[in-house]
Amino acid sequence: MTTAAAPPRVPEAIHRRRWAILGTLVLALLVVVLDNSILNVAMKTIASPAPTGIGASQSDLEWSINSYTLVFAGLLFTAGLLGDRFGRKRALLAGMVVFGLASLLSALAATPGELIGYRALMGVGAALAMPATLAIIMNVFERAEQPKAIGIWAGAVGLAIAIGPITGGLLIEHFWWGSVFLVNVPIVIVSVIAMVLLVPESKDPNPGRLDPVGVLLSIIGLVALIYGIIKGGELADFTAAAAWVPVLIGVVALTAFVLFERRTAHPALDVGWFRNKVFSASVVVIGVVFFALMGVSFFGVFYTQSVRGYSALEAGALMLPLAIAQLVFAPRARLVVDRFGVRATCAVGMVLIAVGFLGYLLLEATTPIWVLVVLGLLMGTGMAHVMPPITVSIMGSLPREKAGAGSAVNNTFRQVGGSLGVAVLGAVLSTVYRDGVSDTLSHLPTPELREKAGESLEATLAIAARLGDRGRELVGPANESFIHAMHVVAGLSAGITAVGALLALLLLPGRVPAGGPGGPGAPGGPSGAAADAAGHAGSGEKVGRTAAADA
Fold this sequence. Notes:
Elements: H1 12-15, H2 18-47, H3 58-86, H4 88-107, H5 112-140, H6 146-174, H7 179-182, H8 184-198, H9 212-235, H10 241-263, H11 277-307, H12 312-317, H13 320-329, H14 333-340, H15 342-359, H16 370-384, H17 387-396, H18 403-441, H19 447-453, H20 457-467, H21 472-507, H22 528-537, H23 539-550
Helix pairs in contact: 2-5, 2-6, 2-8, 3-4, 3-5, 3-9, 3-18, 4-5, 4-8, 5-18, 6-13, 6-17, 9-10, 9-18, 11-17, 11-18, 11-21, 13-16, 14-15, 15-16, 15-21, 18-21, 20-21, 22-23
């Protein structure tokens, strides 16, 4: 007796243009991720007095980044839900339009306050667009091709992070500071036109009633939690009330969110998903990876520019090996998973990342720069074998019609993990550096000058330059103290990543659930042939209607 093959889930009209759709989604993803890494290069220029910059203070600069992060992280989950309910294409288009307009306004900002506000608006656009990209991929690719498509998606993230500083450096060298935002506008225009022409609509066919209480609790919890984490990192003191009070509010709100979602008949988030070991283990591992990686990126910039003396453009070029490794290996990670399984692939990938962190212990002020290039290749290769399989595991363990919510949870854990990494590891870096350089700074004439110089390596070098010949004796000890602090943070990051590798070994599956999205193993998903029929008649039904209209 033979069993009939399951019908394809994706209508033929959409299947034929799936790679063009992916290219459009990658373009949208690039501009959103690229923006933050570009901005880092422009900070010094923005801080300059007008007309070169807008005279932003250190606090202004920090909040031009933090306002974006706060809004982005706080709205990610809600934006994913809106996409599932009202249409992922609509969410993507709305997000890109808001992002493009906010980019134009940011480029024309006349004061630091305006820039901070417009950056928050950019966060709204990014939150709408980011979950939709991954959710649409899950609805235009058949099960067998999803790992390859997600690999390309993950590689694009790595590329954007790496080329951001190079692009920013070129723009700052040849144009004014606002060009780092204005460059987004033509890319957004092209991507929006392509989305209108190519991307099909899809949504959850049975979204249920709205859950305003759950949505509000999720926003309050995430915003308060991220704000407290950011504040603790700024102060290098998580015991300060300004840090722990928001964190406590966030934890209480998120706890209330979970309890409410367990009891309501129409939850915004089915917390039963977390009873699925594949889903819960995957989101924990992705948070651990970004905790370590975002923390190390924090000190990498200071090492290359402040200690080694490279320009912003040269420092950006030194990130290319990490991006190249991801571009080469991420789309091919599925081949390794097919051979060795998800558990082994992710665990070995995280071991490679941990070894890369340990390699930072070899870096000194005069270490040949090729060592840093090799470390970038090693860590990029490790990331390429962690991010795509983990993302496939997360998305594959959920019903396909919930792709937007699943993508939002995936991105939220990445964002929270990354923010924690920058804050916690940044605080460790600052504390170890301050302790290491304190004896040298004790020779400075005033307590205020000593306090200011101890804030960071950049602050010490700025004071040294101001003091002229007398300040030269500060440079050597300051670099040594920073390198020691970098070694401490790199060792801590290696340990955290090793814990992540252990979690991957213990908790991740040998293989991705056979049913794929909405199939066996998915919480609430049907099994066997019913899964294919439900998938075709569920979210695929909405895609099919658009396909028919297009045809």
